[in-house]
Amino acid sequence: MADYAIGVDLGGTNLRAAAITASGTMLEKVGAPTDLSTAETVIRDIVRAIESVRAKLREHRLVGVGIGVPGFIRIAEGLVVGSNNLVCLEGYPVRDRIEQALGAPVILENDANAAALGEKWMGAGRDVEDLVLLTLGTGIGGGIISKGRVLHGFVGMAGELGHLTVAPNGNPCGCGNTGCLEKHASATAIESMAKLLALGDDLTAKDVYDLAVAGNERARRVFESMGQALGVAIAMLINVFNFPLYLMSGGVLAAWDYFYPSLEAEVRRRSYTYRHTETRIEKARLGNEAGIYGAAYLPFQAQQAIFAS
Ligand SMILES: [Zn+2]
Asked: Helices (DSSP H) in 136-283: which residue ranges?
């Protein structure tokens, strides 16, 4: 008999749910495709995945469910208010509907916030209480962990670090801003830069990386430029927070040796705090498991908060 929580990571095309104990042991895990046609089909798929995990653990006690969702969350209401990948969920009472279906407490969280919490709990941030995570993918997500907990801001939308301005007149972004970090340092940005430098029209970020490895100077410049944009953003974060640890995750980390030198040089140039402290900038460790760990940790944290009060 063990207490466990279920963490759910809701992606654009599939979802994963796992049962994890308070000490971080994963007991069960399932993956399933997600039908994004309507809010009802998404909710149905989430509930189904959770129930299938729960059915295998009848003798154990479910503490609660945490769900990481790509998008802007209103944390108190359990609402997704904006999401490029999950337009059907916008304004829908996601948390309450899933709670009703399961009869168990549910916590909704932004997926990158959940990943940051996962790294704090079981990954690269275990030895610190404060960290920032940047998830580098087709976009860039961010999560800020302060005193061991997700920093939410007053609504739940803090940590949207992909939309930090790194170039005031830079590329336009879907959020309405220009020069957002994710327009200059995501996998999508790498592909656009490769195109602009006439490396090829339909190259993936991996293709650009392979060219860099093969010694192509223009491909290497793409990663230098990406590193520079990340460095501008991370220097700002260091100057704001003075946290000990800044993490990055995502497939693009394979190109670390090609973007990190320009990133570090930029941070060094722009942050007095970085130059005079032992601030670390490192790779995250849990890969795409981070979100599921972080989501599962949320009900345990909520429980601790109740016991502490
Ligand atoms: Zn933006």
From this structure: 182-185, 187-196, 205-213, 217-241, 256-270, 272-275
